[in-house]
């Protein structure tokens, strides 16, 4: 059986209180009149829960949170990195240290507001070599004097 609810209308007209049955999903303007005994006795089906019960401490749920998983993973990497570095062959170790040096140089140049130099260090290009190459190319080409712009007043 469908869950039947009641609509209670309280007005100043006669009768002051009228009650209609209502089935969810049907029109509210349904004019089916069912006489109910007066006074109407409504009993609650469940007690209202105004406050949520406080949950107890659960260490497993705490360890399963994404923040804790990231912290645990970072801690494991922190302690495993020296062990992994000691087991690497010397050539790979030199290559890793060279990349770390480039990364530190890029970070320091970016912190000094030299974003172009920092990106160049990250990408492995050297701006000074590029500037020298372009200046040499421009000096070897035919020299054409650019037109001077008139001064503004």
TrEMBL record:
Superkingdom classification of source: Eukaryota
Topological relation to the membrane, as annotated: Single-pass membrane protein
Domain ER membrane protein complex subunit 7 beta-sandwich per the UniProt entry, residue ranges: 18-70
TM regions (residue ranges): 67-85
Keyword Translocase attached: no
Span list, region Disordered: 130-153
Any single Pfam family the record assigns to this protein: EMC7_beta-sandw
Major localisation: membrane
Location in the cell: Membrane
Compositional bias annotation for Low complexity: 134-145
InterPro entries, per the entry: Beta_sandwich_EMC7, EMC7
Keywords carried by this UniProt record: Membrane, Signal, Transmembrane, Transmembrane helix
Coiled coil: none
A cellular-component GO term for this protein: EMC complex
Protein name per the record: ER membrane protein complex subunit 7 beta-sandwich domain-containing protein
């Amino acid at each position: 059986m469908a869950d039947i609810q009641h609509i209670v209308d309280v007005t100043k007209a006669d009768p002051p209180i009228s009650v209609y049955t209502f089935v969810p999903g049907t029109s509210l303007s349904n004019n089916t009149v069912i006489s109910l005994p007066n006074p109407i006795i409504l009993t609650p089906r469940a007690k209202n829960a105004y406050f949520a019960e406080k949950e107890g401490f659960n260490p497993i749920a705490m360890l399963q949170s994404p923040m804790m998983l990231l912290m645990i993973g970072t801690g494991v990497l922190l302690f495993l990195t020296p062990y992994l570095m000691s087991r690497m062959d010397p050539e790979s170790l030199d290559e890793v240290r060279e990349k770390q040096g480039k990364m530190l140089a890029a970070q320091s140049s970016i912190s000094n507001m030299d974003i172009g130099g920092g990106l160049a260090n990250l990408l492995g290009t050297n701006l000074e070599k590029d500037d020298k190459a372009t200046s040499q190319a421009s000096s070897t080409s035919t020299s054409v004097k650019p037109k001077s712009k008139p001064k503004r007043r």
